[in-house]
Amino acid sequence: MSPEAVVQRQFDAYNRHDLDAFMATYRDDARVWRMPATAPALDGGDAIRTFYRESRFNLPTLHAELVARTVLGGKVADHERVSGLGAEPVDALAVYEVVDGRIANVWLFGP
């Protein structure tokens, strides 16, 4: 599966709030970085699963809109507009690194 297809599968699962399908796109040792971090905000599949279960997929109006996508080798950069986190949608940039068909790292830029 191409890196773009992996990220699209993750994106679709996010919008369905399907935690198992979402996590199936991540490696067990995946990390999520909130830039300009020097250490990961979420380190490992268990931490990612817990965060999204307790802090994202419990929000009934959570939804991401894909504004733009760029693919360069194993990296996929998405400009996303996320609603349901607060009163107004927020824009964010997520850069996904796909290794062996699963997401290994995510660098998040935005509020």
UniProtKB/TrEMBL annotation:
Gene3D superfamilies: 3.10.450.50. Residues 7-105 form the SnoaL-like domain. Keywords: Isomerase. The keyword Iron does not apply. InterPro entries: NTF2-like_dom_sf, SnoaL-like, UCP030561. One of its GO terms (molecular function) is isomerase activity. The keyword Isomerase applies. It holds the Pfam family SnoaL_2. This is Steroid delta-isomerase. It comes from Cognatilysobacter lacus.
